[in-house]
From TrEMBL:
Residues 25-159 form the Lipocalin/cytosolic fatty-acid binding domain. This is CO8G protein. InterPro entries: A1-microglobln, C8G, Calycin, Lipocalin_CS, Lipocln_cytosolic_FA-bd_dom. One of its GO terms (biological process) is complement activation. It holds the Pfam family Lipocalin. Keywords: Disulfide bond, Secreted, Signal. GO terms for cellular component: blood microparticle; extracellular exosome; membrane attack complex. It is found in: Secreted. PROSITE patterns: LIPOCALIN.
Length: 176
């Protein structure tokens, strides 16, 4: 017998039940991130306001456009979230071997917030998105609970600026 695949940290994260993809469509603001990413730790003082536009494709996958500033210029990063084994679970394929990212919508009230888990290799991040750039303390508490449930602490939880957003990028500043 082949050895069973080791359980992934996201295997035990339940996806939001009853989530319909059209509810996720539209504009979101990146409010916070819980992550052990060393780049984030080293550059947390340079975080830029970030918006995301979600478009539903073929009723099961998502086109994600992330808008953020880099060196004062607005950039658009385009990604395609493919459906995974269950509703609320997606796969983001990167370039090269070992670059896939598993995505789980952990908790969401599509009119106000979404808490989404990302796993690349053994590394997990938790992101909080809001329909507005600021969310209620109740939503922040839920987010911090989700972050702690992944073994991440307050010292690796970062909040993003609530001003200075990009709404578009010119044709030379788009990454697919």
């Amino acid at each position: 017998r082949r050895p069973s695949r080791p359980q992934s940290p996201l295997d035990k994260v339940p996806a939001q039940e009853g989530l319909s993809l059209p509810q996720l469509a539209g504009r979101w603001f990146l409010v916070g991130v819980g992550s052990r990413c060393s780049y984030l730790a080293e550059h947390s003082h340079q975080l830029e306001a970030t918006t995301v536009m979600v478009t539903v494709l073929d009723e099961q996958s998502l086109a994600i456009s992330t808008f953020r500033k880099l060196d004062g210029m607005c950039w658009e990063i385009r990604q395609h979230y493919l459906p995974a084994q269950a509703p609320g679970r997606f796969l983001l394929k990167g370039h090269g071997h070992g670059s896939k990212v598993d995505v789980v919508v952990g908790e969401a009230d599509p009119s106000t917030f979404a808490i989404i888990y990302y796993q690349k290799g053994r590394s997990v991040s938790v992101k909080l998105y809001g329909r507005t750039s600021q969310v209620s303390e109740t939503v922040t508490d839920k987010f911090e609970h989700h972050v702690r449930s992944m073994g991440l602490s307050d010292d690796v939880t970062y909040y993003f600026p609530t001003y200075g957003f990009c709404d578009s990028a010119d044709e030379f500043h788009i990454l697919d």
